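**Discrete fold encoding**
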Amino acid sequence: MVSVAASSAFAQTSTAATAAQPPADGVYDLVVGTYTGGKSEGIYVYRFDTNTGDAQQVSVAKTVNPSYLVVSRDKRFVYAVNELPGDNGPASLRGDVSAFGFDAASGQLTFLDKVSAQGNDPCYLSLSPDGRYLFVANYSVAADPGGSFAVLPIQQDGKLGEAVLGVHHEGGGPVKGRQDNAHVHSTVFSPDGQYLFTQDLGTDKLYAYRYTPDGSRGLVGPTEWRYTEMKAGSGPRHLVFGNDGRYAYLTSELAGTVSALRYHDGHLTVEQVVKLAEPGFTGAVGAAALHLSPDGKFLYVSNRGDANDISIFAVDAASGKLTRVGRQASLGKSPREFAIDPTGRWLIVGNQNSDTAYVFRRDPQTGLLAPNPKRIDIGSPVDFKFVAP
């Protein structure tokens, strides 16, 4: 386990970095995670100009299936899942998490180390509020070992230690082939940093855990109420909290919906559920990512399947409820993830199955996305993270 002294130093550095001012020239690093079975080699870094929406590739770090990324708060490190074995791999093969040093000024990544995710198909990463640990969600196509999450200590040099905790979920849901066992799809901390929510697509539950790094209850322990149960067969996937922390928003992949939930002291209560597809739509759906605009006034949600679009919702500041204001085609197949740049002027979405990403100009007042976006050709783009040099 990482030492307390080293952890504290890392946390202080990370916290201080969050107050950094945006670059004077408006140019950010854009770090992109991909699937590497086709045209991609790994993690790509672009220089993204928020004045023009132009992106120029500056580097690539070779690694297998870095489909989800997280950047340390001090911007010195990038962590990536290595999503293995996938649909056709052996159940005995565990996925990994790789650590990279990151020079934001030059846009270069340097491999540091790789540790086991302690499960199959790692698909999501999150940093603990104190910066001491990296939490990884293991979706796990295979029933054995099944859906789980693991806790990896972060050392002062940015390297990862072997997992100090692994938690497996049990159960399943009614959708054959998709809910035959547990599938942990995301690990998200509450705004107060006291609770961890793990969204399980297989069991239709949002599990709630206490985070107690002081050791008073163990590092992570179940709450008395254990979970919030979602509609059977809905397949909860990703969760984000609103800017003031009073509400959270959830995508349910199998149902193709987004839900608004009220948050209070570790409890999530469903207030609203909205279908993403147009009325009368009969094709396949697959709700994926969701992100708020920097000012918290608009929520964007991607829908895959045959829909391949992004829904745009206005957020009511008082009730947290959503009102649809628009819908934008992703101009490709399977928009799994997307990101809004820190200025709020641009939204970039990756079309995983058509090897393209599109940069849409965003209207901060209406939330709408302008036509004629800029195109980036990149193999199987999935995840996007903006970093100020």
Notes: Residues 209 and 223 are 5 Å apart (CA to CA). The two ends are 31 Å apart (CA to CA). The domain at 1-168 is CATH 2.130.10.10 (Methylamine Dehydrogenase; Chain H).
